[in-house]
Design brief:
By secondary structure, the protein is α+β, with helices and mostly antiparallel strands. The chain is 49% helix and 11% strand.
């Protein structure tokens, strides 16, 4: 049975911001369900009854039809699996879905990496090994992983610990291991040639990413003070703001190659955006979790406690 939250009086400035945000930036239903599942449901066991998910998504502007359609599509795509109990449907993450969420979490919540030692990771995909549609697909997916294309079929990114663990999985998921050669190396010292650093502006659309980060800062910066101290809104507002915050941040992060500071342009706004996201996430954490506990039903009734990794987000909540 769903627990009823004791609602505080909604904080009007926050309510006004939420109405404006949903009107100006209406989120796509399936993408928002993915955000909420990864941010809020996966840490609580990854399984939820469809009815309570519909209730959870309602204040984010998604009606029952949109939620049902989104869940159906995610099930067809292998993210979710359904279990029937009479007329009720329990949806849980598949192993593949959990792996995707864990991989995305490493990018979204991990502190910026500043440990680059000058090594580069290079992926070669000879055109004779892949069809044209497959090459386009590989290019797009490697782009999500922070690779830039320096020449046709030649992709590179700065090599650092956080990124290395995922490349084998990415190539396996693309069924491209047989067609790709992965190299790692440094620029040869003492050779008078152009530096790879000079190619960064052409490999990655850094101007676009910077614009998206600045838009993110503009949208969310004014909310921090509203959530400090006793002026914070009710739990539902905290959940909605946290979800919209992570949804917007996730979309920017997907385009950000996460270059080390040495390769980033002057005034790069990513560190400020990350700090803002961390602050607002922390300020909405308690209220959002209270709302989740009052709204969601899981397989065993009450929502499971958050997994230990949840508290490691943003370097420690």
């Amino acid at each position: 049975m769903t627990r009823q939250a004791r609602r505080k009086a909604p904080h009007e400035p926050i309510a006004r911001w939420i109405r404006g945000e949903l009107a100006r930036h209406p989120p796509r239903a399936k993408s928002l369900v993915v955000t909420v599942w990864g941010d809020a449901i996966a840490p609580h066991g990854g399984a939820v009854w469809l009815g309570s998910l519909i209730r959870l998504m309602a204040p984010l502007g998604l009606n029952e039809r949109l939620v049902r359609t989104s869940v159906y599509r995610l099930t067809r795509e292998g993210w979710l699996a359904a279990q029937q109990d009479g007329r009720r449907s329990l949806y849980r993450l598949t192993p593949a879905g959990m792996q995707r969420f864990e991989h995305a979490s490493r990018r979204i919540y991990a502190p910026p990496s500043n440990d680059w030692d000058g090594r580069w990771e290079i992926v070669l995909t000879p055109p004779t090994k892949l069809t044209a549609p497959k090459r386009r697909h590989v290019k797009r997916e490697l782009g999500w992983e922070g690779f830039g294309e320096i020449a046709p079929g030649v992709f590179l990114r700065p090599s650092h610990t956080r990124a290395e663990a995922s490349l084998a999985d990415v190539l396996a998921a693309l069924d491209a291991e047989h067609a790709a050669v992965v190299l790692e190396g440094r620029e040869a010292p003492g050779v008078a040639t152009s530096s790879l650093r000079a190619y960064a502006p052409g490999c990655w659309d850094l101007r676009r990413v910077a614009t998206e980060y600045r838009a993110f800062l503009t949208r969310f910066d004014g909310l921090v003070e509203h959530f400090r101290g006793a002026r914070a809104g009710d739990p539902e507002q905290a959940f909605v703001v946290r979800s919209l915050l992570i949804h917007a941040f996730r979309r920017v992060m997907l385009h950000d190659p996460q270059l080390p500071a040495e390769l980033s342009p002057p005034g790069w706004p990513a560190p400020r955006a990350y700090a803002l996201c961390h602050d607002l996430y922390r300020l909405t954490l308690r209220g959002a979790e209270e709302h989740l506990g009052a709204t969601l039903d899981a397989a065993g009734g009450a929502l499971p406690r958050t997994a230990p990794y949840f508290h490691e987000r943003f370097g420690g909540l």
